[in-house]
Amino acid sequence: MSGFQKYISKRIIFAAISIFIIFTFDFFLFRLMPGNPIQILYRSPALSPSQIASLEQQFGLNLPMWQQYLLFIKNTFSGNFGISIYYHQSVSSVLFPALLNSLILLIPATIIAIFLGIITGKIAAWRRGTTLDGAITGGSMALYSIPTFWLGGMFILLAIYTRSLPVSGMYTTGASFPSFAAQLADLLNHMILPLTTLTLVLFGQFTIIMRNSLIDVLEEDYINFAKSKGASDNYLLARHAVPNAELPMISVIAVNLGLSVGGAILTEVVFSWPGIGFLIFNAVNARDYPVLQAAFVIVAVVIVLANIVADILYSYLDPRIRYQ
Question: What is the rounded CA–CA span in Å between residue 14 and residue 139?
Fold first, then answer.
């Protein structure tokens, strides 16, 4: 077995262990939250003790904790996430449409943020120490540190004041669309504010990472050697500096999936976007264990798998890791 294959095998084993630990943490985390989901959901009108006991039995909440845990592990690996306590539907029928809505927002926001972050990071690194570098770095740090809910709230206030854009939802409530084009136009109109908010939150991080990575590369000996041989600035950037500086971005993008979901949860809550983040928010309030568990399982598995893909791609592109 080659060094590359050993490296990948270790990463896959580590990922499997990580997923199992996440499953276990996922199960116990939400059951440690205060409050009984049945009593929270049916507090008005209040149920009798016998009715509460019947519902707890229906959802398996009357079983000992260890039995609930084993049942959760078995159902999770079989793809059965159970019935939502709050929505009274199968968790899959609630979760996957919300996941699709989140991807509609997350994918373009991440792509735009990466593209703009790489460009501005290049400019800041090449003009390091100048006023332009300070402005780009300062602006990126500000965007990275600004709370998502505050930035989204400012956009909502601006939209309400100017009466220019919708501030909540994915489509106009009660609207009937004569064609797909009209529906798409309404969707894009509702996407502007949440997409801008999420893109700006992610953009700052990508700019800082690209700038710092490129500065490190520009100070390497082989760059100075190429300069001494008369290589032009454009040649240095295009052929040597940028390709090596972009390698760390692969890992950053994979890790950023978790941060993107965190930013998306707040963005979706602020703008009432019906994605998985908004679903998690409602499920937390309702103590809807099945939905919470399934949502975190899906998100965790996606992040772990994305990191494996990033590790494989990084090790393939960087010979220093491939032949280690």
Answer: 37
> Residue 179's pLDDT band (boundaries 50, 70, 90)?
confident
In a domain, 298, yes or no: yes
Q: Identity (one letter) of the amino acid at 273? A: W
Predicted confidence band at 35 (pLDDT cuts at 50, 70, 90)?
low
Q: Give the span between the Cα atoms of 292 and 281, in whole angstroms.
A: 9
Q: Is residue 63 part of a domain?
A: no
Residue 318 — very low, low, confident or very high, per pLDDT cuts 50/70/90? low
Alpha carbons 170 and 188: distance in angstroms, whole number:
9
Q: How many structural domains compose the chain?
A: 1
- We report the CATH number of the domain holding residue 12 as 1.10.3720.10
State whether the Cα torsion 72-74-75-78 is positive or negative: positive
**Assigned domain for 93 exists:** yes
Peptide bond into 274 cis (omega under 30): no
Residue 68 domain-assigned? no
Q: Does residue 178 carry a pLDDT above 80?
A: yes
Q: Which domain holds residue 152?
A: 3-33+81-322
DSSP single-letter state for residue 46 = P
pLDDT of residue 126: 83
Residues 6+ apart with CB under 8 A from 163: none
**Residues near 209 by beta carbon (within 8 Å), at least 6 away in sequence:** 117, 121, 248, 249, 252
